[in-house]
Design a protein that fits this description.
binds zinc ion
């Protein structure tokens, strides 16, 4: 799916779920939700995140030589690795591990897997060897993605602003 859709889905889901989980919404949480919604496509050398910085380009080159697009990063193992990276970093910085940042990281990453599962290519959440592939009818860059995602995003933002 388009990177704009992933950012909208990641941040909207973060704003929507944080109060339900009982976690405060923070700017850092929103930013990490957006970054986490994009990091999943680091396995694709032409993705937005892969061109973001020299560092992400280097990581992307490494990952894309050992896995295919929608491979290991598009699984629950990829999500687990991302949680470990963020939790370890927070711990190293002597910050609380269970925090809006970790929650943003989890929600952002999950939102990417959910959104990618809506198109015909689908996602093998349990890895490439798994027979289970979640997929849907929404075409990447199609009319539903281009209008539907921003509409749901706008709706959640309005709901969030009304709650302030
Ligand atoms: Zn993806």
């Amino acid at each position: 799916m388009l990177h704009g859709s992933h950012i909208m889905a990641g941040t909207a889901l973060y704003l929507f779920l944080s109060p339900i989980i009982g976690m405060q919404i923070t700017a850092a949480g929103i930013i990490i939700a957006a970054i986490s919604s994009l990091i999943v496509d680091i396995d694709h050398p032409k993705s937005f995140i892969s061109h973001w910085t020299a560092f992400t380009k280097m990581i992307s080159t490494g990952i894309s030589t050992v896995t295919t697009h929608r491979g290991i990063t598009h699984t629950l193992y990829g999500l687990t690795a991302w949680i470990v990276i963020i939790a370890t970093t927070l711990n190293y910085l002597e910050k609380a591990v269970w925090s809006p940042i970790l929650l943003g990281a989890i929600i952002g990453y999950l939102s990417h897997l959910i959104i990618d599962s809506l198109n015909p290519q689908g996602v093998r959440w349990l890895g490439e060897e798994s027979k289970i592939r979640l997929k849907g009818p929404i075409q990447t860059g199609g009319i539903i993605e281009r209008f539907g995602v921003p509409l749901v995003f706008a709706f959640i933002i309005v709901k969030y602003l009304q709650g302030l």
